[in-house]
């Protein structure tokens, strides 16, 4: 299962100053040896340590995978070193990398992966992925979701363990209460899911006393909206150009206007006890941009039958690329047994490995081709194929953003100020972001 894209994870961003210090720590750790207790022994057996964050339920699933892997690889012992929360995970990992005690294999969040790749602490994977030992050939993954896990020269250092496109979940009951009779998914199927129609639906929801749409304040929201509206945040060289692109400026201003008048809501800022989940399952909002993990929330509330998903709207109604949230699985460059570490890494990311982790209540979308049935098998939501289509067309967080310590945090703060009416115009906010990106 993916914890990279749960709600708590997307709300948490490391403070810029801490991130800068962390980047220095990474650079130092790249020069130090590994004190990892794993590796091979005199009898030919190996131990692979690996680390991630997650809930007790998720960690239990991972232990189940470990048991299956060890049954299939009797010469390799696997030890999971979990961290309960995402907020503590990377600081702990940085300390381990500095002291040479980092695990052989570990997760990295999509807002931090660029820093780890740049620091030189990760094992190159391209040749291994196309070797006879691999269950995960390079061409089995959509290049768009590799993001900063792949460098400009084409070398791969990190691959998403699974992904989560932020689809627009919608509440049929709330739409009906607002007098909306058209079905968003049916409109999308006919390439008629236009921005104009979407905004009109939100206007009707607001007039009915309901929240139009709810979004988390992170790159997935900002840049999905920009891309879906035909704008450009970063050019191919990694330069932020959103402030010089009229389409982007207009799109961000429209989004901000809907935020400022309360039709759109920043989910992060909703009060405890009346948060986004509560509003959605009680039919208080029409749309909610989230991933596949939303299924569990709706099923637990006993209201799943009232909900479905649709891609983001576009000016002409046809599909456009939007962001795909991810966490990445990497191998420590200083692992004492690269062969054993890769054996675990490739099994974990393989079709079989992802099917094991994501079936029976899995909360994410496979990153590898061939495992799509885990999303479609239950027939829920009705248009579950949308998750796969968004994955295949989508893109990960921009490498230019995830590589700079603290940049995503600073951008989120600037955008939140705009959404709350405290940050001037869209043009002024995008100019501020351009300056932040240039300083990085």
UniProtKB/TrEMBL annotation:
Coiled-coil regions, chain positions: none
InterPro entries: Bact_solute-bd_prot1, SBP
Localization in the cell: Cell envelope
Gene3D superfamilies recorded: Periplasmic binding protein-like II
Pfam families per the UniProt record, alphabetical: SBP_bac_1
Annotated GO CC locations: cell envelope
Record flagged with keyword Methyltransferase: no
Keyword Signal belongs to the record: yes
Swiss-Prot/TrEMBL keywords: Signal, Transport
Similarity remark: Belongs to the bacterial solute-binding protein 1 family.
Name of the molecule in the record: Sugar ABC transporter substrate-binding protein
Annotated source species: Ruania alkalisoli
Lineage of producing organism: Bacteria, Bacillati, Actinomycetota, Actinomycetes, Micrococcales
């Amino acid at each position: 299962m993916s914890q990279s894209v749960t709600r708590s994870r997307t709300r948490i961003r490391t403070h810029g100053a801490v991130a800068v210090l962390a980047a220095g720590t990474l650079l130092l750790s790249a020069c130090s040896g590994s004190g990892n207790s794993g590796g091979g022994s005199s009898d030919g057996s190996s131990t692979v340590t690996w680390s991630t964050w997650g809930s007790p339920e998720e960690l239990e699933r991972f232990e189940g995978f470990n048991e299956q892997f060890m049954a299939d690889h009797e010469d390799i012992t696997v030890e999971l070193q979990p961290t309960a929360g995402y907020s503590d995970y990377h600081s702990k990992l940085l300390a381990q990398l500095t002291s040479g005690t980092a695990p052989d294999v570990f997760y990295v969040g999509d807002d931090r992966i660029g820093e780890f790749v740049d620091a030189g602490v990760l094992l190159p994977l391209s040749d291994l992925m196309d070797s006879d030992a691999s269950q995960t050939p390079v061409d089995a993954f959509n290049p768009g979701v590799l993001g900063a896990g792949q460098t400009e020269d084409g070398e791969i250092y990190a691959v998403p363990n699974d992904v989560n496109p932020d689809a627009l979940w919608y509440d049929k009951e709330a739409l009906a209460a607002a007098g909306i009779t058209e079905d968003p998914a049916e409109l999308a199927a006919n390439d008629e899911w236009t921005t104009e129609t979407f905004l009109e639906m939100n206007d009707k929801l607001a007039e009915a006393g309901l929240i139009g749409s709810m979004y988390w304040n992170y790159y997935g929201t900002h840049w999905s909206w920009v891309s879906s509206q035909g704008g450009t945040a970063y050019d191919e060289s990694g330069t932020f150009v959103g402030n010089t692109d009229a389409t982007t400026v207009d799109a961000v201003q429209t989004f901000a206007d809907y935020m400022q008048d309360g039709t759109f809501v920043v989910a992060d800022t909703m009060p405890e006890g009346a948060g986004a989940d509560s509003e959605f399952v009680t039919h208080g909002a029409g749309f909610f941009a989230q991933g596949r993990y939303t299924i569990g929330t709706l099923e637990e509330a006993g209201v799943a039958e009232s909900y479905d998903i649709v891609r983001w709207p576009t000016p002409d109604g046809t599909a456009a690329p939007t962001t795909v949230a991810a966490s990445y699985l990497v191998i420590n460059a200083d692992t004492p047994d690269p062969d054993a570490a890769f054996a675990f890494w490739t099994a974990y990311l393989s079709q079989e490995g992802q099917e094991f982790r994501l079936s029976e209540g899995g909360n994410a979308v496979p990153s590898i081709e061939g495992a799509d049935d885990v999303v479609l098998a239950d027939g829920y939501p009705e248009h579950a194929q949308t998750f796969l289509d968004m994955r295949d067309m989508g893109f990960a967080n921009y490498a230019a953003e995830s590589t700079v310590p603290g940049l995503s945090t600073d951008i989120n703060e600037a955008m939140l100020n705009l959404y709350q009416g405290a940050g001037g115009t869209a043009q002024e906010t995008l100019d501020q972001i351009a300056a932040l990106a240039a300083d990085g």
